[in-house]
Design a protein that fits this description.
By secondary structure, the protein is α/β, with parallel strands linked by helices. It has seven helices and 14 strands.
């Protein structure tokens, strides 16, 4: 397998103090990834495209597994027989931009489980949001309301820890990240991508493949803002606390309050805002 590249060096004209010079700059690579689902239907083998997303190459199998889990298409990693890259016949160079997920025999695919349209972008994350009512009827873990209590003192530290662990961001300054932390603020796992939702899918997919779900005793920190889709993915994985560097959307707050999640925004410097689930945060005297 050819190693995937997640950065690219390009020539730029750098301007500093009114002076210009030719310089090389590293950019985060953005390429499309198609996720195809292979399954049995009425005794025959069927293959169907279920998503095309713009992503940063790397951890593609985790991205595919996390996406399918978040959409309710699979309920665990055991539903997957194998994940492979599609090899196009006669192609001189394999770009690794198509992933094929083979479901185990007996695992059925219900297209109605898909909550979003097939095409998403790194900028908007989701095209056509599902309603909270649709989310209510899906199989989802019930989050414990009295199991997790975390100190307010760790909240402002999460962003710094996340930032220091972002290896590709350090090179390019152009990637989002999703990090999983324990209740003491220790980083468990981190994934990067041009899209926040992809970073979350990669993170959840990594935990899913290790049979570590649900994640009742964890905190997820995301760079940028928190959206409905990010909250939906966290809920599916059983993550009770989501912390974001930026602001939440109105629908993200509604989802958090509806399903008993703790949602924190603007967690940077020495402060943060709590939008939902303050009972999980212990404040000092």
């Amino acid at each position: 397998m050819i190693p995937q590249q997640n950065v690219k060096r390009v020539a730029v004209q750098q301007v500093r103090g009114g002076q210009t010079r030719q310089q090389k700059d590293l950019l985060a690579i953005e390429e499309p990834l198609e996720i195809r689902l292979a399954f049995e239907e009425a005794g025959r083998r069927v293959e169907q495209s279920v998503s095309i997303t713009m992503r940063t190459p790397g951890d593609d199998f985790e991205l595919a597994a996390g996406f399918l889990f978040g959409e309710g298409i699979i309920h665990g990693y055991d539903d997957i027989d194998q994940i492979t890259y599609c090899v196009e016949p006669g192609k001189e160079k394999q770009e690794y931009n198509v992933v094929r997920v083979q479901l185990r025999p007996g695992v059925r695919f219900d297209p109605d489980r898909l909550l979003r349209h097939f095409y998403t972008t790194s900028s908007c994350g989701v095209c056509g949001k599902a309603s909270l009512e649709a989310l209510q009827i899906r199989n989802r873990p019930v989050l414990p309301q009295d199991r997790l209590v975390i100190s307010a003192e760790i909240m402002p530290r999460l962003a710094g820890t996340l930032r220091q662990a972002q290896s590709v961001f350090e090179k390019t300054g152009g990637l989002h990240a999703a990090g999983l932390f324990d209740t003491q603020g220790n980083l468990i796992s981190l994934r990067e991508d041009v899209g926040r939702h992809n970073a979350v899918d990669k993170l959840v997919g990594e935990r899913l493949s290790a049979n570590r779900l649900p994640l009742f005793d964890t905190i997820m920190m995301v760079s940028g803002r928190s959206s409905f889709e990010i909250m939906q993915k966290a809920l599916a994985a059983g993550i009770p606390v989501v912390v974001a560097v930026g602001a939440p959307s109105s629908l993200a707050v509604e989802l958090a309050r509806e399903f008993g999640m703790t949602l924190v925004g603007f967690a940077r410097g020495d402060g943060f805002n709590v939008y939902s689930g303050a009972q999980r945060i212990a404040f000092g005297a």
